[in-house]
Design brief:
The chain has a domain of 48 residues. Helix content is 11%, strand content 36%. It contains 2 helices and 6 strands; from the N terminus they run βββααβββ. The strands form 2 sheets. It has a 4-stranded antiparallel beta sheet, with no helix packed on it. A two-stranded parallel sheet has the order 1-6. Strand 2 and strand 3 form a beta hairpin. The chain starts with a strand and ends with a strand. The model has no long low-confidence stretch (mean pLDDT 79). The structure holds zinc ion (ZN).
Length: 100
Amino acid sequence: MKMPKTLNRYCPRCKKKTEQKVKEPSKGKPSSLKRGSKVRMRLRGLWRGIGNQGKYSRMKNQQKNKRKTTKKTNILYTCTVCNKGKYQKQGKRTGKLVIG
Ligand SMILES: [Zn+2]
């Protein structure tokens, strides 16, 4: 989805419509110790040895296949008038957010 660099939106701080910069917030690093992650399973001592390992038996060779190709993108709006109002809003489902 294409987004313009600036948009005229309502700023709750200025209490009127102002020009606001559009930015995609940084996503941060995903934790490798998430629930159900391979690292966590290994640390817990699961997923080792021979024999039936329950639900982890199947996961050994199978990759979790992604079914959804798009995600809801977060958009960060920064007010250019007060420079303090920063608002994040969840946008529409898109594959990639292009600002410019
Ligand atoms: Zn403002």
